[in-house]
Design brief:
heterodimer, A: 317 residues, mainly alpha, two-stranded antiparallel ribbon, B: 305 residues, alpha/beta, Rossmann fold, Alpha-Beta Plaits, 2 domains, six-stranded mixed beta sheet, four-stranded antiparallel beta sheet, 33% helix, ABC-type transporter activity (chain A), membrane (chain A), transmembrane helix (chain A)
């Protein structure tokens, strides 16, 4: 155990001494700031205190939405959820809260795809760069098993993505508070759930969103890690992973007529399809099924990484 | 004599190619052993098998009595190595590079790291990033990381590659010092005899994956009495002279000269018999059969690719 912690220290030292790692944090911070500025000047966002005749205003807004929902051919049905939520507010006498840091942070859960991108780059490089630099030869001739070295690298990738997520959360909260203020420590919001609109804790909602995005992130990072271990080339690992990340869901949508498409990883990674009133990509898929498929892919990725790293000779230039 | 490392019937196949063929070799404690052969002879493959980077197809390598196949951790613990070039993390300082490897083996203190830095003379540059080091400095850093855990066997693959003459001299003195003062066995590989002849006690000649012979360097230098010498005779007429010396193995023939192999004792006899036959002797040139000649003899001059 002692030397495993030493290995983690080593891997983190190698990450943190590279400028590229810090550039990733800087990019994320700039995007968060940019999002806040856009949101701040956008008209659709109310940051001021809601006044007493909010029910009347909400009714007018709901009526407008209903009109668009039924008449506009392009937007047909798009606002059903919003209308239901608005009605819930009025019926239960829940005053809508102004836009604040919590909601800003919740919306920024979408930025986890950025973190996926960064984590893919880290995962792709963490094995391949040792081969590229030639340091793999000095790394592997120590009295430590290759399995342990590989594990330390994988854990470092996961740690990196979690620290990045934490960074996203904390900087969203801070920047959000500066721009929009904060509605208490744990406000509630009305969200769609399986049984219609429901009042939930916003913190719980943020936690769920970030957690669900984590699944996709970890799967893509593990895939990049596998390609890196298999081909010892980071460009290839980054290329294939990002390609799959962007085309995966489209391909699944294209193939959704086929029954077997449900066995494709990307049909399953978005567990949001089982939350709220979401519809599964392919009929008949369940949460349990998706979790099983994800687990199977995950194990395959790890086993291939492990075989490629521990069983092969380190030869050539 | 104590054996530090032993190679037993080591074979390596890559695909259908038989890269290493039945290698048997013992490295003694405190000796400097040279692995000599042309490029592609299998030196680096052999070294990679010694440190476990490559698995052997059959056979075994024992390091301080531990098999690298079955007891990898205990075997590799005794080895420090640079495989091919001394490649370091360019974005880490020299110190952090050493700290990195020090963390991987328990019991290496910061004092030990300082000690090793002093040994290789890198004190001044240790805080600088390794990416800015010259090749010579990286070579020293490479030696430093290999010595951190006080290994009993030090393996240096082509240690003089890319170094200037001063650097080569320094490495040479350094390796001798380690072997003599610290009783470390050192294995060096090279494709240039001249570079390792002066630092090695024994040299194994390897070609096409086979160990052709192991030469004792000191033998060929010290043993005056029985050393085979090359005697070049510039004589006239050449034909008659050739008949007279025909009992000696002829090494080469020139336009006016002939070179034969003989020991020191035999030289006066050769001259006497030539004089008696009334042959004009213009010049007699005596050279030691150097290790280089033996090397070429073994591997064939024209096969060096």
């Amino acid at each position: 155990m002692h030397n495993f912690i030493a290995l983690l220290q080593n891997e983190n030292m190698k990450l943190s001494q590279r400028i590229s790692t810090w550039i990733m944090y800087a990019i994320l911070l700039v995007i968060i700031l940019f999002g806040a500025v856009i949101e701040f000047f956008s008209e659709s966002v109310t940051t001021t205190e809601v006044d007493d005749n909010w029910k009347e205003e909400l009714r007018v807004e709901t009526a407008n939405l209903e009109e668009m929902n039924e008449e506009d051919e392009y937007m047909y049905g798009m606002f059903t959820d919003e209308i239901a939520i608005n009605n819930y507010h009025i019926e239960n006498d829940i005053k809508p809260l102004p836009y604040d840091a919590w909601q800003f942070t919740m919306e920024n859960a979408g930025l986890s795809s950025m973190i996926s991108l960064f984590t893919i780059i880290i995962a792709a490089g963490i094995i391949a760069s040792e081969y590229r630099l030639g340091t793999i030869k000095l790394l592997l001739i120590r009295p430590i098993s290759r399995t342990k070295i590989l594990l330390s690298k994988y854990v470092t990738v996961l740690l990196f993505s979690m620290i990045m997520l934490l960074f996203l959360f904390i900087s969203s909260m801070i920047i959000g508070s500066l721009f929009f203020g904060l509605n208490g420590l744990n406000p509630t919001i009305v969200q769609m759930s399986v049984d219609g609109p429901k009042e939930t804790s916003i913190f719980g909602e943020i936690f769920t969103q970030y957690g669900l995005n984590m699944i996709n992130l970890v799967m893509m990072a593990t895939f990049a890690f596998m390609i890196s271990s298999l081909f010892r080339n980071s460009g290839m690992a980054i290329g294939t992973s990002i390609f799959l990340m962007f085309t995966g869901t489209t391909v699944v949508a294209m193939l959704s007529n086929y029954e077997w498409a449900k066995y494709i990883l990307f049909a399953n990674t978005n567990l949001n399809q089982y939350m709220g009133n979401g519809v599964p990509v392919i009929e008949g898929m369940t949460l349990g099924f998706s979790i099983a498929i994800i687990a199977i892919y995950y194990i395959i990725f790890l086993v291939v990484s492990w075989l490629a790293f521990t069983k092969r000779d380190v030869a050539g230039a | 004599m104590n054996v530090a490392m032993e190679l037993i019937n080591v074979n390596k196949n890559i695909g259908k190619k038989h890269i290493i063929k039945d290698l048997n070799l013992s490295i003694h404690k405190g000796e400097v052993f040279g692995l000599l052969g042309p490029n592609g002879a299998g030196k680096t493959t052999t070294i990679r098998m010694m440190v476990g980077l490559m698995k052997m197809t059959s056979g075994d390598i024992q390091i301080e009595g531990h098999s690298i196949r079955k007891d990898y951790k205990n075997a590799v613990r005794h080895v420090g190595a640079i495989v091919e070039n001394p490649e370091m993390y360019p974005f880490l300082s020299g110190w952090k590079n050493l700290k990195h490897y020090a963390r991987m083996i328990p019991g290496i203190t910061d004092e030990r790291i300082h000690e090793v830095i002093q040994l290789v003379g890198l004190q001044k540059a240790i805080k600088e990033k390794a990416g800015r080091y010259s090749l010579g400095m990286r070579q020293r850093l490479g030696v430093a990381q290999a010595l951190l855990h006080r290994p009993s066997i030090l393996i240096l693959d082509e240690p003089t590659n890319g170094l200037d003459p001063a650097g080569i001299r320094e490495i040479r003195q350094y390796i001798r010092k380690l072997a003599e003062e610290e009783d470390v066995s050192v294995i060096v590989s090279s494709h240039l005899l001249s570079e390792i002849e002066l630092m090695c006690d024994r040299i194994g000649i390897i070609k096409n994956g086979e160990l052709l012979s192991v030469e004792d360097v000191k033998d060929s230098q010290d043993d005056e009495e029985n050393t085979e010498l090359s005697v070049t005779l510039n004589v006239s007429p050449l034909k008659e002279a050739m008949e007279i010396v025909s009992s000696f193995p002829i090494k080469s023939e020139g336009e006016h000269s002939i070179t034969v192999k003989a020991t020191r004792e035999q030289i006066p006899d050769i001259i006497k018999s030539l004089v008696q036959a009334d042959i004009q002797i213009y010049e007699v040139n005596v050279e030691k059969t150097s290790l280089e000649d033996k090397f070429f003899e073994r591997i064939g001059e024209n096969t060096i690719a």
